[in-house]
């Protein structure tokens, strides 16, 4: 059986709930000069996948998911990861970051190129609780 790589260009902004199993992140990702952008590209009954683009200097705000794990596969760029509200840990392309349910996570692009990563969250739907900035 031969599977072809499906194009997602026509699917931007559309909920993807079909039988597609191969995704091209170059075609899925969306960029913004104003803020980091999350673009969902699949969801099943148990997991959801998104691609994030964080431009140089942009931040993905620190937050928690109280009932879901969030796994990041860094495809491009470098930055700092926030495993706690007050801790910065450098990361770079090729690394995987695992945040278990209830653990703080967020990121800032400290490099000169876009940070691009795939986020896999399970179970879904995932809650979103921003870290308070007292």
**Mean pLDDT, nearest integer?**
89
- Which percent range describes the beta-strand content? 35-45%
The first-to-last residue Cα distance is 56 Å
* Alpha carbon gyration radius: 15 Å
Helix content: under 10%
Helix count equals 1
Poorly predicted runs are 1-15
How are the strands ordered across the major sheet?
1-2-9-4-7
Order of helices and strands: HEEEEEEEEEE
Query: Total strand count, please?
Result: 10
Largest pleated sheet: 5 strands, antiparallel
How would you describe the overall organization of this protein?
There is one protein chain. This protein is mostly beta strands. Helix content is 3%, strand content 45%. The chain contains 1 helix and 10 strands, in the order H-E-E-E-E-E-E-E-E-E-E. The strands form 2 sheets. Strands 1-2-9-4-7 form a 5-stranded antiparallel sheet, with no helix packed on it. A 5-stranded antiparallel sheet has the order 6-5-8-3-10, with no helix packed on it. Strand 5 (78-84) and strand 6 form a beta hairpin. The chain is globular. The model is unreliable at 1-15 (pLDDT under 50).
């Amino acid at each position: 059986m031969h599977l072809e790589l499906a194009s997602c260009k026509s699917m931007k902004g559309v909920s993807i709930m079909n039988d597609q199993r191969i995704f091209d992140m170059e075609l899925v990702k969306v960029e913004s000069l104003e803020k980091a952008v999350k673009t969902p590209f699949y969801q099943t009954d148990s997991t959801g996948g998104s691609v994030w683009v964080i431009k140089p200097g942009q931040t993905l705000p620190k937050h928690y998911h109280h009932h879901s794990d969030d796994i990041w596969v860094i495809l491009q760029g470098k930055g700092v990861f926030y495993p706690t509200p007050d801790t910065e840990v450098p990361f770079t392309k090729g690394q995987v970051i695992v945040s278990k349910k209830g653990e703080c996570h967020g990121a800032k692009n400290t490099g000169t190129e876009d940070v691009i990563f795939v986020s896999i969250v399970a179970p879904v739907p995932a809650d979103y609780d921003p870290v308070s900035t007292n």
